[in-house]
Specification:
five-stranded antiparallel sheet; alpha+beta; Creatine Amidinohydrolase, Chain A, domain 1; elongated; Creatine Amidinohydrolase; 2 domains
């Protein structure tokens, strides 16, 4: 066989094999997922929640919700086989004191999983609210926390009707015990358990693998494939893996043209039918939901021009600026600092190094944009009132989301390296849950076959 023809066939075989190899971690069956979710919930109720309630001085926490109008918190406390609250579901968590287990009751017709035992017999006490009052009077708590909050929607789930009916049932004496449970709710939502952090890397790895496949020759044919084609491939891939997402992905392009690339254009005004071409710098924003935990990732890829085997040096330099901004930012994380403090310190340090920063990092966990410390917003680089004033706590997870702008002389314009990677903050500092992107992905992947 002709040597050149043999080499060509080997290259084709290599590329088809390389593009097909995407090693997704094991994804559990629905039955196995339910088991894991319920085990984690039971562990968290007895290990994560009691210290938070004691710290905030709340000895009884009520989470009240009606079917199809669920409190964001109650969704994290329902068993895996409950996809919604039933009728009106009232969960009662009572701290019996140091050394005693947290008492968890459901003022409902049914047990709410194994964690909350039904404490209401409608035949004996027809009125659900009155049964709740009986439970409260029997325990005589000092403070009764309810989910009302100005700064966090996650902790503001008690609707007006339930609030008014609760107060009417409690009467004046017990109503004076009602306080906002926002810090208990936020603490519950933001704190990650050891079991969750053993699982989270697998979840983030799945998301990374989907991006790696999406940004490859298996999906993208330069000159034909559009950015919207890649977006919908991602949505289909999520379904194929029997997973879900919490937001619609985005894929955008920066290239050597006259178009500027601001935040609004990249996230809400990007062209839908943008054909991907050689020389393009691609960006995606992508996340999945699995085992009740969420991911949020932004990465970049470059479409090689004929003859190129790596991204241009000017794009590598711009990308390094993005990685350096990540380092500056995460090195400023310290327990007790507020989000606004970390934002200010990080921006000042980056600017001093000649980096043009924009930082808009958020907690992640049971929600994509989760409860906890906000560290900037893209349109609030001077600080975020409320949740930006909230201090950092250990054992919490964040999407380290930011961008660094760099002027590209060859394109005669500024580009933005927009990075987002999920990370965990504990006593040892910040670590990326499944690593971070440190090099621009190449499309197609470069062959290592020696064709001499």
């Amino acid at each position: 066989m002709n040597t050149k023809l043999l080499t060509l066939l080997l290259l084709i075989l290599f590329f088809s094999t390389a593009q097909a190899q995407h090693n997704y971690p094991t994804i559990l069956s629905m039955q196995e997922r339910a088991r894991v979710i319920d085990e984690i919930l039971e562990e968290r109720l007895q290990t994560i929640l009691p210290p938070i309630m004691r710290k905030e001085g709340i000895d009884m926490w009520l989470v009240i919700s009606r079917e199809y109008n669920e409190d964001p918190v109650i969704k994290t406390m329902l068993p895996a086989t409950w996809l919604a609250a039933r009728r009106r579901t009232i969960l009662v968590m009572y701290d019996q004191g140091e050394g005693k287990p947290l008492e968890t009751l459901a003022v409902a017709r049914y047990d709410v999983g194994t964690g909350f035992k039904s404490a209401w017999d409608k035949e004996k006490q027809p009125n659900q609210w009155q049964r709740l009052v009986e439970i409260i009077n029997e325990r005589n708590p000092k403070k009764i926390g309810i989910n009302m909050s100005t700064d966090w929607a996650h902790a503001d789930g008690l609707v007006v009707t339930d609030y008014e009916e609760l107060k009417a049932a409690l009467g004046k004496k017990n109503s004076t015990k009602l306080v906002s449970a926002e810090k208990v709710a936020v603490g519950w939502l933001e704190t990650r358990s050891a079991r969750e952090m053993a699982i989270y890397p697998q979840i983030v790895r799945i998301a990374h693998e989907i991006i790696d496949e999406a940004f490859s020759g298996s999906v993208i044919h330069p000159g034909i494939t559009t950015t919207d084609d890649v977006v919908w491939w991602m949505r289909e891939k999520i379904r194929e893996l029997k997973l879900t997402t919490w937001f619609h992905p985005s894929v955008s392009v920066q290239r050597g043209d006259s178009e500027s690339f601001d935040h609004l254009r990249s996230f809400s005004k990007r062209p839908e039918k943008n054909v991907i071409m050689p020389g393009d710098l691609l960006h995606c924003d992508f996340g999945i939901t699995y085992l009740r935990l969420n991911t949020d990732t932004q990465q970049h890829a470059y479409i090689l021009r004929p003859g190129e085997t790596e991204a241009p040096e000017y794009l590598k330099v711009a990308f390094k600026n993005g990685n350096r901004l990540q380092d500056i930012f995460t090195n400023n994380f310290k327990e007790g600092k507020t989000g606004n403090q970390v934002l200010k310190e990080s921006r000042e340090a980056a600017i001093a190094e000649g980096i043009k920063p924009s930082i808009y990092t958020h907690p992640i966990g049971y929600h994509g944009h989760a409860a906890g410390t906000t560290l900037g917003m893209w349109d609030s680089q001077g600080g975020v009132p409320g949740d930006g004033d909230y201090p950092l706590h250990l054992n919490t997870a964040y999407s380290i989301e930011l961008n660094a702008s760099t002027f590209i002389k060859e394109w005669d314009k500024e580009i933005r390296i927009m990075l987002e990677e999920d990370a965990y903050f504990d006593k040892d500092g910040v670590r990326y849950i499944d690593g971070r992107q440190t090099e621009i992905l190449l499309i197609p992947r470069v062959s290592k076959i020696n064709t001499d």
